[in-house]
Amino acid sequence: MSKYLIIIFMTVCLKASGQFINTQLDNIDILQYDFHIQINDSTNVIQGETHVKFVIKKTTEKLDLDFKNQHNNGLGMKVLNLFNNQGKNLKYKHTNDHLIIDLKPTPKPQDTVSIIIKYSGIPEDGLYIKENKYGQRTFFGDNWPNRARYWLPVIDHPSDKALVTWHITAPKHYNIVASGKLFRKISGLKYDQYEFATKVPLPTKVMVFAAADFNIKYYDKLYLSNKCISVSSWIYQKSPLDGFDDYKCALKILKYYDSLIGPYAFEKLANVQSNTRFGGMENAGNIFYDENTVDSSKSVENLVAHEIAHQWFGNAVSEEKWQDIWLSEGFATYLTDLYVAYFYGQKKFKERLNKERQKIRRYNRFTTHPIVYEEKQNLFKLLNPNSYEKGAWVLHLLRQKVGDRDFFKILRGFYQQYYLKNASTKDFIVLAEKISGQKLDWFFKQWLYTPGIPQLKFFHQYDTKTHTVKLQIIQKGELYKLDITVLLTNGKDSIYKNIQLNNVQQTYEFKLPAKMHSGQIQLIIDPDINLLFESLN
């Protein structure tokens, strides 16, 4: 997800209750959702029917689905009927935004149960029904983080992945895109029905559909390591046609990540101009971008790279709990950095790292929480420089610590081990230690679980008689173990020195070679942008 519109969005909606732990997940595992949605042009009312198939893990008498009920303002969903797959009506309560369903007679562990929920209403959130910038009516699902519940009855938590099918009935003028592959279109006199299905399970945050008057461009089939996929650009009918190519960079981005990390998980990739809250939203197999990203300038390549990176980390490998969000956003940010390095060189890569570091410094001057922490009141507050930029820097620091060979083995190993599953920060740490052969608990404790960043003060002097440079480093606040590179130069010749800092105050002396005995000596801390710190000088 891109934070392109986060500041605007936060002023509009600050209410997204935290749902870090869903105890029901110990008892229930959703296998599949079949969503039947009918939209129209005369009202914002949607007609819905959801088939939920789940397996019983532990004996339970109830299924508790997240589902916003209808409120006095007329917004929300009203359940019309609810029954099992034998047609037997089931008792239920729909209150306090929960749909609690009586499963009696009580199913046994390992039993598979299917229920059908019919409902209607006007979504208050989650499904955006509004005009785009050209005044045309559009429908866009926008579920992150836990807003699927506003229009779909689900367990709205990233750790309960499920297969998804969509059956969208819409007026004929709309084009429909949704999670999964289109396997059937049924044309009617006034309405068409589109049917999509996924072959792999998804978290609710990235299972969506969109309906708008689109122009569509399909590129040549893209051959990746394990499959051939369809790649397309979807833009509003009134957008300039050369705007298709604002998203064309997706072709080389997909190939790069596929070769760097591992096989692409989904059936297609549609890049879609949209009318939602975020600058980019990484919905699985169909990414939604802010409508202003289509301007024929091809200036959103880094945004596209970030959202495509989420197809690997965030979608295929998903965070187990919301406090593990850096495994999604930090990874996507650093993978974008790596993409820039590969195609545009080390200079651009270092520029991005430096900008990220500056943002981290500004943010951590005023925050008191680490990367991994429990924000229980507002999940949108997790969208901050700790999760994005500092998360990316943790990966960059890990790369310096273990070396390129092991670092990329860790990335690929993490993807392979948790492919189509959920992972926690602890899972990543265990794997990193196993692959690198290093004990890294201290490393992750100081970078993931400690608020702030190192506060360092530097003093140095050059003795022209002994040709010795003395460097003193003082740490303020939390004590960190740091590997620091310094560059000593007289403008003509240079030497690098690597030092280890693990005390509140340390002093180092460097004897200069004869070739550097002339000229003014300059000392540069971290010349290659490999250290995250705040200078107090």
Write up what this structure looks like.
This protein is of the alpha+beta class and 537 residues long. It has 3 domains: 25-314, Sandwich (Immunoglobulin-like); 319-448, Orthogonal Bundle (Neutral Protease, domain 2), CATH 1.10.390.10; 455-535, Aminopeptidase N, middle-beta domain (Immunoglobulin-like, Sandwich), CATH 2.60.40.1840. The chain is 22% helix and 33% strand. The chain contains 9 helices and 29 strands. The strands form 7 sheets. A 7-stranded mixed beta sheet has the order 4-7-2-1-10-13-12, with no helix packed on it. Strands 15, 16, 17, 18, 19 and 20 form a 6-stranded mixed beta sheet that branches. Helix 3 crosses helix 4 and helix 4 (326-344) packs antiparallel against helix 5. The longest helix is centred in the middle third of the chain and has 19 residues, at 326-344.
Topology overview:
Blueprint: H1 6-12, E1 28-38, E2 46-56, E3 62-66, E4 76-84, E5 92-95, E6 98-102, E7 112-122, E8 127-131, E9 137-141, E10 163-171, E11 175-178, E12 181-187, E13 191-197, E14 209-212, E15 214-218, E16 222-223, E17 228-236, H2 250-260, E18 268-274, E19 280-281, E20 286-290, H3 301-312, E21 318-319, H4 326-344, H5 346-364, H6 386-402, H7 404-417, E22 422-423, H8 425-436, H9 441-448, E23 455-463, E24 468-476, E25 482-489, E26 494-501, E27 505-511, E28 522-525, E29 534-535
Helix pairs in contact: 2-3, 3-4, 4-5, 4-6, 5-6, 6-7, 7-8
